[in-house]
Structures are given as C-alpha cells and as structure tokens.
Amino acid sequence: MRPARVILNAKSSLINTPAWVALQEHYNKTKKVHMLDLFEEDPQRFENFSIEFKSMLLDYSKNRVTKKTMKLLFDLAKQANVEEWRDRMFAGEKINTTEGRAVLHTALRNRSDKPIFVDDENVMPKVNAELEKARIFSEKVRSGQWIGYAGLPITDVVNIGIGGSDLGPNMVCRALSPYKHNNIRVHFVSNVDGSHIEQMLGKLRPETTLFIVASKTFTTQETITNANTAKNWFMSGTGRVTEDDISKHFVAVSTNAKKVAEFGIDPENMFEFWDWVGGRYSLWSTVGLASIIYVGMANFKKMLEGAHEMDAHFQEAPLEENIPVILAMLGVWYGNFYGAESSAVLPYDHYLRLLPAYLEQADMESNGKSVDREGLQTTYTTGKVIWGAEGINGQHAFYQLLHQGTRLIPTDFIASVQSHNEHEHHSDILASNFLAQTEALMRGRNIDETREQLKNSGVELHKAENRLPHMIFEGNQPSNSIVIKKLTPRALGRLIAMYEHKIFVQGIVWNLNSYDQWGVELGKNLAKNILEELDSGDDIHSHDSSTKGLLNWYRKYKKPS
Ligand code: F6P
Fold first, then answer.
1. Which runs of E-coded beta strand occur in 404-492?
2. 3-state secondary structure of 173
3. 126: Cα within 13 Å, side-chain hemisphere
4. What is the pLDDT of residues 29-52, one digit of tens each?
5. SS in 3 state form for 206-255?
6. Per the count of CB atoms within 10 A, which of 109, 159, 396, 541 is most buried?
7. What DSSP string runs through 48-81?
8. Is 486 a catalytic residue?
9. Which of 98, 189, 215, 216 to mutate to test the pocket of ligand 1 (most atoms within 8 A of CB)?
C-alpha cells in the first residue's frame, strides 16, 4: 500500500470550537438573507458598516452580514488569538516555525525610532543603512552621475527576478508611474522563456542599461538563467569584458552574498536584505531598488510611511474597527461558511492594474496550505483563489459571471477619487461604473423591475416574455469598496500593507504558517531531473505514462528535422 500523504491521520478540530460552531449556526439561520432587505431594515447601514482611515474609506456594507455576524466573526478572531500573534510578529518572534524565521517585513517600513530585535540584535540600523545605500546609488543613477562603460548615463533599468522579486517592484513602478523619472525607463524580466528576455534586450543598448538581478536566494533557476543571458548579451555588445565594465551595469539584491560574488557581481554592488523578509513581502526592502530608481527615494519613503501608518492601525485599532481584520473575517465568512472558492480584486485605476497579480502571489502562496501549524490536516478550506483585472476592462469580459453566474464570488472594488490625468470626464465615467457595479451586484433586478424597464424602453412585453428570465439578476453578490482620495505613494503603502495584514489574520484564524512555501518545491525538483532527460539521448523509463509520453513527444519534435 502507498504510504499516507499526511503523516498523521489526526485532523484539526477548529470547526468544533465554540466560535466556529456559533458561526455555523448563525450561517444556517441567515444564509438566505438578501442584502437589499438589510439595507431597507437599516437606513444607517453605510455608516454602521464603513470605516475611514487617513485618506481611505472601506465600505463593507454590501456584504451578507449583520452586526451579529460581525460580532461572531470577531469572536472567532479573538478565539484564534489574532492580537497575540500580531504582537509576536511585530516583536520579531520566529513565527515562521517551519523555517525558524522571524517575519519582519514591518521592520523595513518602521519609520519610528523603536528598535526591533531578532536574536537579540536590533535590526533597524542595518535596515536604515541599506536604505541609505540604495538612496545614494539611486540618486547617482537618476542624476546621470552613474556612468556606464561608454561614459553615458543610464536610461534603462532592467529588473531580473521572479515571484516576489518581480511582482512587487513591478506593481509599485506601474502604480507610481505618475511620479516617475522622465529619462529613465524600467523593465521587468521574469519568465525563463527566452522570448521574454530576447524581446527586452532587442529594445536596449548595453552602454546605457543597468541590470538589477533580484533574488532572495540567488539560486532561482529562471533568474540566474536570465541574468547569465543578460551578461552574455552585455559582453558581446560591448566588445570588451572587464570586471569594471560589468560592475557599472550589473547590481544585485539578495540575502546570499556568496552566490552573488560567484555570479560575478561586485559585493559593493550588492544590496542586502535578510531571511526574516519573505520574498512575497520584500518590496519594502532593496528588492524595491528598481522602483526606488524610477520614482526616487523620497517617494519610496512616503510609501514606507503609508505602510507604517497601516501597521500602526493594525496594531492599535480594536478588532471591530480594524480594517485588515474586517476584510480578513469577511473572507473567512464567505470561504468557510458560504463555500466561496475565489475572490476577485477589481481596481478602477489603471495604475493599479498589476495589483491583482501581485495579490495572487501574496495571498495564495501564503495561505494555500492544507496542514496547520501543528502538522494536522485542516478540515476546512483555507486560502481562496485570488484573481482579478482592471475593473472597467473586466466589465466587458468576465463580469457576466459575477452578475448571473452560479458562483458566489466576493469582490474588492478599489477606486481612487482624484486621478493623475486631466481628463475629468473619463474619471467620472470610471467612477460611475465602479459605483454602478457594486450597486448592481448587490441589488440585482427582479422580474417586475425587468418588465418595467422593458416597457419603458418601448419593447412590447408580449414579444419579450421569453427573454425575461435571462434578464433577471438575483443580486446579493457581496463587495467591499476600498476608495482612496488619490493614488499617492503613501496611499499605495497603506493599501498594500492592508492586504498583507488581511492575509496574516486569515492565516492565524486558519492556524497556518503563512510564511513558508513548501508547495513550490516538488515541481522545481522534478524539473531538474526532467531537464537532464530532455538533453540526454537515453531511453526514458521513469515517470508515469503521461509524463513519459509528453517528454518523448517533446524530444521527438525538438530534434531539428
Ligand atoms: O518558488 C517560489 C519563490 O520561492 C517565491 O516565494 C519567491 O518570491 C520566488 O520564488 C523568487 O525567489 P528568489 O527571490 O529567491 O529568486
């Protein structure tokens, strides 16, 4: 017999705990409630279920919750000791137990004078020193003082990285592009598919390009492969290969000084961060170097300050008024009780278009787990599928399913009021659509309203009867509206930190370690063996018949005909 996949047959007992059971009973009684009735019953519903923080508004009134639901959800958070765990994280305790690490991305944006200790060392001096090093470097690049091998200033910065070493800084650059440097472009290469780097290099000149190789481990196959290709391109393009030339065009961001030196990057040109920063939480560190160069250190620091403000809110606000906690518990409500499988992030701001992709990693790599902290199998669902796209484009693509599909998909609408462009009319159209969508999802449209509408538009009702059922909207689709005054660096910092803490709270409620990612290992290991098999001429005997069949087919057609 095959050995069991989970070592212990023991299962988590979370679903039998008092707070969970109380929520289950409450769900059984209230599951049919329609939000429209809740709005009718409580004229103050918006005031009762919304919260303002700095220049941000969270309206969560369009959710299938009552005050009682929220109370029971907060009871569950309390039962899970969310506050205690939060304090342990901020204090630098090693809450990432499977890797024996602290979880301190919050130290990277600690703008107070408070020391933060890991293994009895105050980490703040080195955090600040690294930021200062990045400031000096970025200012040289931005001012044109950093000169390439041919005596020319840098015009193009290419970040080579993947996952957390790509998605975060890329998203920040796009989000803050109104603050960008006028003469410097940034590019991101992540995919090991040679087409990605080939297309990129085709647009660049070696004498004015700076490569940032960003990798926490500096062992990631995709990144090192792309970095080597870039180095070869640089060397062949320059026609000269001195260490000095390379050091003017290649810098690294990593925790692994040894590997960086082996690659041939001068340790002087390495920006450091530490093992207590998870890759998907690293955009606040020098992993953000590309964004620091692009928008300048002053703006980057404002982003850190915004995140620090959200950290303070998360630490100080009571659970009932705590934005990340509210969002997290709403997610638990839909995922664990209503059985929602996914959740969509829908920014109504073009500059936030990469936020959904960033949050996919942040959330799914953190909470996509089925074994709890004690090594017990969970008997409840954990991280949801996170997906999304710019709202307005999504309306013309997948919103049909949100409005009339069979699934419950809670949504986060994110909008900013003051845009960075001069086209006021565009902004109003955008805002009206955001508002209309959340209203439509909540209200729906019943048969009488549909008939009325048809009549008003001049349609003869007897001719439209068969169309009627298709035009009815059940409504009752939950959404959060997160509205910010303007997408500034500070506002962006608050927004990202808000989601990070939401993910943290959910991980605590589900009793997970949100800061490891063992699930990415197996495929990586298998790929190493397969890579050797692809290159060898030997007959393949290992693998299941599907993998073997695919491998052989690939080899057959890979051979030049
Ligand atoms: O394979 C997943 C992962 O380890 C992510 O967690 C990480 O963000 C990404 O790969 C890149 O890792 P690195 O920064 O070490 O290259």
1. 411-418, 479-486
2. helix
3. 12
4. 999 999 999 999 999 999 999 999
5. HHHEEEEEECCCCCCHHHHHHHHHHHHHHHHHHCCCCHHHHHHHEEEEEC
6. 159
7. HTEEEETTEEEE--SSS--HHHHHHHHHHHHHTT
8. no
9. 216
CA distance 273 to 477: 42
Which of 271, 280, 517 for a ligand 1 pocket mutation test, highest count of atoms within 8 Å of Cβ?
517
215: left (phi > 0), else alpha (psi -120 to 50), else beta?
Answer: beta
167 Cα nearest atom in ligand 1? 8
Our CA angle for 555, 557, 561, nearest 5°, is: 120
In whole angstroms, what is the distance from residue 213 CA to residue 230 CA?
Answer: 10
Number of helical (H) and strand (E) elements in the chain, helices listed first: 26, 13
Question: Is the pLDDT assigned to residue 472 strictly greater than 90?
Answer: yes
Residue 541 appears among annotated catalytic residues: no
Cross-strand partners of 217? none
- 29, 396, 470, 559: which one is catalytic? 396
User: Any residues with Cβ below 6 Å from ligand 1, and which?
Assistant: 162-165, 215-217, 220, 223, 279-280, 365, 517, 520
Contacts of 258 (CB under 8 A, 6+ apart): none
- In the predicted structure, residue 480 carries a pLDDT above the cut 80: yes
Distance (Å, rounded) from C-alpha 351 to C-alpha 171?
9
- What is the amino acid identity at position 129? A
**For ligand 1, atom 1: residue with the closest CA:** 520
pLDDT on residue 261: 94
DSSP conformation letters of 156-222: EEEEE--GGGTHHHHHHHHHTGGG--TT-EEEEE---SHHHHHHHHHT--GGGEEEEEE-SSS--HH
Burial of 446 (0-12, 13-18, 19+ CB in 10 A): middle
**DSSP 8-state symbol, 412:** E
* Identity of the amino acid at 454: L
Average pLDDT in the 308-324 region? 98
3-class state of residue 477 by DSSP: coil
- Give the integer Cα–Cα distance in Å for 114 and 373: 30
* Per-residue pLDDT reduced to its tens digit, 200-216: 999 999 999 999 999 99
